[in-house]
Design goal:
alpha/beta, 209 residues, phosphatidylcholine lysophospholipase activity, 8 helices
Length: 209
């Protein structure tokens, strides 16, 4: 539990918009990365994760932004894997500025995020790597998760929003069967030990903002 060490997050409201990796209602017995961070820092987590959602799917992140509270200190957006695998909209290109593509939806979301929280500490986290042999590396449109990751990095970089690349720098060896069995049994969702494994990378990232 919180040991009175002073973190930048200590006493702050940390709002997270995300998917099932964040949503505590998805596998409730799994201890999430943000729970480990809350225990260390004493921050208050505002969990706006919804399983199966993303920038273009289900209740989109942009739609969810309309109901987030105004008094958050840190706002982090963590998603994209469902857009890659479940979404019907194509990746698109950086120049897209409408919700007909993933790129376009990224632009619309991050513009709205800055408009709503212009003085707050904003950040993004890319999708985690994933591996299910039955799915392979490509979606039905021949796109890869790495392309979606690069899109998140490119658009956040354009708006000056710090982004943590958990796809390439998360220490998650998604194609190693021993690693998967130990930390991510279904090839997508980390178990409690998986969240424990990578939560410090996210905490270090946030503390550096």
């Amino acid at each position: 539990m919180f040991k009175n060490r002073k973190y930048n997050l200590t006493g702050k409201n940390w709002l997270i918009i995300g998917d099932s990796i964040t949503d505590k209602r998805h596998h409730p017995k799994t201890k999430k990365y943000h729970e480990y961070i809350r225990e260390k820092t004493g921050c208050k987590v505002l969990d706006y994760g919804v399983s199966g959602s993303g920038f273009t799917v289900k209740e989109s992140f942009l739609e969810r932004l309309q109901r987030t509270p105004p008094d958050a200190d840190y706002i982090t957006v963590f998603g994209g894997t469902n857009d890659f695998r479940l979404g019907s909209k194509p990746l698109g290109v950086f120049q897209d500025k409408n919700n007909d593509s993933f790129y376009g939806s990224l632009h619309l979301f991050f513009e709205a995020l800055i408009k709503k929280y212009p003085t707050k500490i904003l950040s993004a986290i890319t999708p985690l790597p994933r591996w299910r042999e039955s799915e392979g590396d490509w979606n039905s449109r021949g796109e890869t998760l790495k392309q979606y990751t690069e899109a998140v990095k490119e658009v956040t970089g354009f708006y000056g929003i710090p982004c943590k690349d958990m796809y390439s720098e998360g220490g998650i060896y998604a194609k190693n069967p021993v690693f998967i069995t130990t930390f991510m049994p279904d090839g997508l969702h980390p178990n409690s030990e998986g969240h424990r494994l990578f939560h410090n990378k996210i905490l270090t990232f946030l503390e550096g903002l």
